[in-house]
Amino acid sequence: MTEIVLAIGIGTFAASGMWLLLRPRTFQVIIGLSLLSYAVNLFIVAMGRLHTDMPPVLEKAGPGDPALYADPLPQALVLTAIVISFATTALLLVVLLAARGLTGTDHVDGRETPP
Asked: Which residues span the membrane (predicted)?
């Protein structure tokens, strides 16, 4: 049941991100990129197997059963991806504000279409 909920969540984030990415306004594109990065992060965590109440590393020296432990590599990758996506989003917001100040519109192509 947990896998189905996770798969639906990843699909919802990815579909919403793609829909917003194709919108004509710059702010919607930035939010779409953020949603896509959330979907990818959830996917990476899911590929590292979902374990609850399991330690991330071996407790004693010697051989251990890897099935009893959570994989720390996907967690480290996702943590790094979160930091990078936060910095990228901040940079894109600054570029958005500068472009809006220069062009007077927040359309991706810089042209406002008449209604």
From this structure: 6-22, 29-50, 76-99
Q: How far apart are CA 38 and CA 32, in angstroms?
A: 10
Contacts for 33-36: CB closer than 8 Å, 24+ residues apart: 33/85, 33/88, 33/89, 33/92, 34/85, 34/89
For residues 53 and 73, give the distance between their C-alpha atoms in angstroms, rounded to a whole number. 17
Tell me which residue of 23, 25, 21 sits closest to 106, measured CA to CA.
25
| 55-83 residue pLDDT tens | 666 666 667 666 666 677 888 899 999 99
What distances in angstroms separate CA 70 from CA 15, 63, 64, 83, 84, one per listed residue? Answer: 29, 15, 12, 22, 24
Domain ranges of the chain: 2-54+66-103
Q: What are phi and psi of 25, to 5 degrees?
A: -95, 145
